[in-house]
Amino acid sequence: MTKTYAVLAAFLLTIFVLVPVTISATGRWDLYYTLTSVALLSIGAAGVWLTFYIGRINIGQGAYALMGGYVSAVLMTQAGFSFWATLPLAGIFCAAISVLIGLPILRLRGVYFAMITLVLTEVTRLTALALSITNGAKGITSIPLPGELSIFGLTLIPDFSTMDSPKPAFYLLAVTLMVLTYLVLWRIVNSRLGHLCRSLQQNEELSASIGVNTAYLRVLAYAISSFFGGLAGAVFVAISQSIYPSSFAVTDSVNFMLYCFVGGLGYVGGPILGTFLLYFGWDLLSAAKEYQLLIYSSAMIALMLVLPNGVLSLFDRKGRRK
Amino acid sequence: MEQILANGLYLGAQYALIALGLTLIFSLMNVLNFAHGQMYVFGGFVTYTVVAQWGLPFVLGLIASAIILAVMGALIEVFLFRPVIRKSKRDESTMLLAAGIAFFLDAVILLLFGEKQRGVPKIVNGVFNWDMRIIMPYDRILILALAIAMIAGFIALMQYTKAGRAMRALAQDRVAAQLMGVDVDRYSMIGFALGAMLAGLVGGLLVTITGINLGMGGPTSIKAFMMIMIGGAGVISGAIAGGFILGMMESVGLTLLAAYGDITYLVIFASLMVFLAFRPQGLMGKPWG
């Protein structure tokens, strides 16, 4: 257990202290954007991971990221909300929608659920194109940067637009949210709720037969998952200051799922590692130009052949040999 | 009205062929083939290369698409899916593999054929006109006839040949089929090859009408998923029904809902959700596939 805490402390030290120090020392400011994206995507992937935890393959996280982004953008530009207020609202909106959608579709299993969530992503994009509040294909642009957040006159977070560069601030915001998300996830997994979710993953009929309210549990897990998706989408909008129907498409939904797979489905930290490896790998491979996708996909296939249970299963195997 | 039905029939026949390949692979291996749309695009490009660039007859192009895709499918099954299914703890791992293959095929198509929209010249000229009620170019009618013939051929293959019987047995119960002496590995390979071949054939058929481009892979896969959800995954009759139903809905929707903008797929999806709430396994699927 102490070893786990040591790893956790080292991880927190790295992301909050070492990374900003290294970046300001080397002057690689572009890394902030990459790392912020990794942190945000891993928040979305955390949601997907939770739906995997109840035994459902979720390829619809892009839909909720898009919804969350639009909720935040519309509230900020048309209703004059502050960014900090829209952040939880975006999450709650997505959670509410996911309850409505989830009630019928969570009865589906396996490939059926996977397929319908994939279709959901495409339909969300089409909805964003068709509605007038989302401004169709033109999207919503020139969204203001997050303003100041204060409680009783005490400034907690300064106005982002007054900073020299909002990049480090966004980075800190994203990693803080990521750490919080994974704390919540870790807490869920190691609680009564987590045990019940595991029982759903193993055998839904059996757990229903001993009195577990499976319908309630899976909707709850799906709502939490979508909350994370909406959160990630809202912050993404704040960073890019714009949103279009194509901001999150089917590819993004598939990617969220892949991040979980690559990291390993049996480990809470899996999605973070998976997101980091795949996103960074993709970024590094841009040097290969037209062969980028070829190398990336070959690496993914090779990874699957060598480690079909995720990268973190490497440690798993070592532990068993001892 | 007749025009709408004819269009729906024409779309449905193509869709059914795509869904057949997907559902065959799913029923045999329990693998959701994300790369199906990319295989379809690949088949289209092979036909384009043979017909438009080498100047050979269209039939040869179709045959080339079928052979190349069948070989590709067999290789993918033997060298990729089989070892992963054997080693992995969870069934879902094959989805990552399938998605990886989809990206890989996208990359290969981009490198081999480029990103431009490609098409081949019309194979038959002229337009069929029945009293201004149904207007349809002859080449579309030819494609429709070919597609229906292929569906019929596929059903005959599954019903009356030894390989077809073996594959149906596999789909029903893998272990039982193995105990009865069916060579599971061999027929999994043949099934995958057949599924990929069907995707390639549809690509080859459609390149003559709509043309083909790199971006068509993903949306095609999504449509195929919708079809097998309507019909029920892993059931051949369901795939055919799903294909024709989606084709009809699209054809009717595009006409009736045109006034409200581009919302046909929105409506289709909403009705699909309601439908699945009552019948999660689709029209003809077994409960929980």
> What is the assembly state of the chains in this entry?
heterodimer
**Secondary structure tally: strands of chain A:** 2
The biggest chain-chain interface is:
A-B, 46 and 51 residues
Radius of gyration of chain A: 20 Å
Backbone structural class of chain A: mainly alpha
Largest β sheet strand count, sense and barrel closure of chain A: 2 strands, antiparallel
Instruction: Kindly report the average pLDDT value of chain A.
Output: 83
Could you say which structural class the secondary elements and strand pairing of chain B correspond to? Answer: mainly alpha
Portion in beta strands of chain B: under 5%
- Helical content band of chain B: over 70%
What Rg of chain B, in angstroms, do the CA atoms define? 19 Å
Gross morphology of chain B: globular
Tell me the domain tally of chain A. Answer: 1
Query: What's the N-to-C terminus distance of chain B?
Result: 36 Å
Order of helices and strands of chain A: HHHHHEEHHHHHHHH
Largest sheet of chain B: 2 strands, antiparallel
The main sheet of chain A orders its strands as 1-2
Give a brief rundown of this model.
Chain A is mainly alpha-helical and 322 residues long.
Structural summary, described in words:
The complex is a heterodimer of chains A (322) and B (289). Helix content of chain A is 72%, strand content 2%. Chain A is an all-alpha fold. In chain A, strand 1 and strand 2 form a beta hairpin. The mean pLDDT of chain B is 85. Chain B has a two-stranded antiparallel sheet. Chain B has one domain. Chains A and B meet through helix 4, helix 5, helix 10 and helix 12 of A and helix 3, helix 4, helix 9 and helix 11 of B.
